Amino acid sequence: MGVIDWTSHVARRTSHAKTTILCRSGFSPSRLLMHGKLFDGLKADLQRTEQKRATCDVRRATIQTVLCSLLLALLSFSATAATLPEDRLDIMYHAYKGGGATIDGPSVLVRKKFADKISVRGNYYTDFVSSASIDVIATASAYEEERTEFSGGIDYLHNKTTMSLNVTSSSENDYDAQTVGFSISQDFFGDLTTLALGYSVGSDTVRRRDDDVFEEEVDRQQFSITLTQIITPKLVASLGVESIVDEGFLNNPYRQYRFLDATETRGFSYALEQYPGTRNSDAVALRGLYYLPWHASVKGEYRRFADSWGIEADSVEFGYTHPWKHGLTFEAKLRHYKQDQADFYSDLFAFQGSQNFLARDKELSTFTSNTIGIGVSYELPNKLWGLAEKSTVNLFWDRIAFDYDNFRDVTATGFNPGEEPLYSFDADVIRLFLSVWY
Amino acid sequence: MDKLAKIFISAIIGLGVIATTVNAADQSTDKAPDFTLKSNSGDNMRLAEQRGNVVMLNFWASWCGPCKQEMPLLDELHKRYSRAGFTIIGVNVERDPEDAKRVLRDIPVSFPVLFDTESSVSKAYDVSAMPTTVMIDRDGKIRHLHKGFKPGYENEYRKQIKQLIRE
Amino acid sequence: MTNLKRTAIALATLLTLGGCSSIEPWVKPYERQYLASDIMQFDRDPVASGYLHHVFQSREGARGAEGGSGGGCGCN
Predict the structure, then answer these.
(1) Is A298 at the interface with chain B, CB within 8 A?
(2) pTM for this model (two decimals)
(3) Which among C21, C34, C67 has CB closest to A76?
(4) CB-based contact A174:A180 (threshold 8 Å)
(5) Which of A146, A202, A380, C60 supports an S-S bond with A179, CB 3.0-4.6 Å?
């Protein structure tokens, strides 16, 4: 399992040669380049370490060039003001229904500016989960739970630089997560270009509902760079790269894998999953937004993803926004997503403990998902009796179809193990929200 | 890790520290390029006809918050000094003037607003910020240039108007 | 040469060009009417898009680079 071991191999070697340290550190931007799979199809096998070391040095130089060029570019900008996000209140009801699970709840987001220098943001979000999904009914009983998330942030604007500090805290009865993030965004080149850098660290605690002693930790780091560029008076594009490093207990502690077992009448048994203790992932996305002459816009997006577990994914999305009369705006969207499985995924393992890492999460299998979405926004005519500058009511509906290529429906009876029909399901996502600008 | 952290931190410090001063006013004595544009009253208006008056050209757009913020202040200046040989000419820079007309219904102004739908005047004056305000003296020469708007600029405007009127 | 390296070099070139005054910003402030429009924002409704990202993240292997911040208009 070269790919999995590669991560720990890298971690082990960190203390050796200092020259390549940048290429190996967890949140390094050049880590983006390390998953040869993502960008040049190189397998991360150990024989090529020397070659990698050489390319890492070149890459380090490239990253430094980028940063130095950036600083140089900053020296040349002229003065006009960037802006903070507008004062705004959003109250949303969200619902997800599909595959035996229903998840819904409210989300409220408030933003307020002070002296055009500082903008403060607060978000409250709740999920009520009621799940009898296939993962649950195959090996456990249906459950209900609630997740609550608070997040807050402060943005500080100085000339063309916006600095942001964000904290998020989320809790469930069996999972807690805290994240702190810092980001900086800079407009330059006549405000045609915006560069944003972000870094965050998180720490999670994993527990089990049925086991008071069980408690594990996860540490997360995230690094992102986004470059947004105005290309013509009607076209804006953005290139974003994001790396995430997770270390710790990354399993879902309830999930089990399936293996052939002749002693069982159904021919298979279940055992608790075993994940690697590290996951490094890189995603790069290119987006474009174009203004159409009849006052409408089209959006296109492509994203490529790869991680140290061997998952590779591509997604493509197109959106169309069309303002109509009487304050109505219509939206339509199509999205296609495809991924290849993690190296340690199997629907049915040959025997218990047949390899170091074993998982049967459908999220790690080979599958596609296709989404069609429509939405409408209505701008209220009366501005809430003068209390608001503008307010809208919005309804969005997305239908997602998941089709699994190697995840089988074990609830189907009368089949030999491994010959059950492939699983698929549809989900509906509703977002209904009121937005008020004040 | 250390090295990367250093680079990252220096980049952040770099971003934070490199703060330019606001380019509030440039001195200049170039001749103001002449132009003719359609105004919000429906008539054409030519800059050269204003020779002998102090003219304040204000380039603005409906999507520009600070432009709308300074609009009532400009209107006040226009009302106060128009009898002393001063006028403000608003130049809306948008291709489609409908949005501008909507703004003018919300924020009515007494000075003329011209529609530069072909961007020819914006180009001639090399408008590089929104709003841009150009002070032209009685001889048709550009004397002051203001890029952007922040509260307090109106005092600077008033000082310059008074001085140019006295010349 | 890898794709990413090429991207990085293109980025560096772009930024370097941004740093020398020989290339002027080619979209002028007075040409921003369309870009300033509501419908020309990558992320018009952060609370709604954030939720949808969460929906996909919990059901798909991929994560990151969802977008969601940073507009490019430079308006106001």
Answers:
(1) no
(2) 0.78
(3) C21
(4) no
(5) A202
Binary contact (A25, B1; C-beta < 8 A):
yes
Closest CB to B64 among C31, C37, C75: C75
CA distance B121 to A138: 72
Annotate A15-70 with DSSP letters as a single string.
Answer: TS-GGGHHHHSTT-GGGGGT-HHHHT-----GGGHHHHHHHHHHHHHHHHHHHHHH
**CATH label, B22-166, candidates 3.30.420.40, 3.50.50.60, 3.40.30.10, 3.30.1330.40:** 3.40.30.10
Q: Domain residues of chain C, as ranges?
A: 3-57
A42-77 pLDDT per residue, tens = 333 434 444 444 444 444 444 445 444 444 444 333
Q: How far is A77 from chain C (nearest CA, A)?
A: 8
The interface pTM score, or ipTM, of the predicted complex is 0.81
Indicate the residue of B61, B65, B132 with minimum beta-carbon distance to C32.
B61
Our separate counts of H helices and E strands in chain B read 5, 8
The interaxial angle of helices C3-19 and A49-75, nearest 10 deg, is: 20
- Tell me if A29 and B128 make a contact (CB, 8 A cut-off): no
Residue to mutate among A16, A20, A80, A191, with most B CBs inside 10 A, is A80
What does the block give as tokens for A213? 């002693």
> How many Cα atoms sit within 13 Å of A408 on the Cβ side?
17
The pLDDT tens digits of the residues spanning A80-110 come to 447 788 899 999 999 999 999 999 999 999 9
Identify the closest residue of chain A to C28 by CA–CA distance: A190
Task: Choose the closest CB to C61 out of A83, A313, A329.
Answer: A313
d(CA B85, CA B69): 25
- Collect all residues with Cβ–Cβ distance below 8 Å to A20 and sequence separation of at least 6: A53, A56, A57, A60
Which backbone phi and psi does A216 adopt, to 5 degrees? Answer: -130, 165
**Architecture in CATH of A88-437:** Beta Barrel (2.40)
Pick among A191, A329, A367, A398 to test the C interface (most C CBs inside 10 A) = A191
Is some CB atom of chain A closer than 8 A to the CB atom of C16? Answer: yes
The domain spans of chain A are: 2-75, 88-437
Which helix (DSSP H) or strand (DSSP E) does residue B87 occupy? strand B86-92
Tens digits of per-residue pLDDT, A139-157? 777 888 999 999 999 999 9
Nearest to A299 by CA among A360, A387, A236: A236
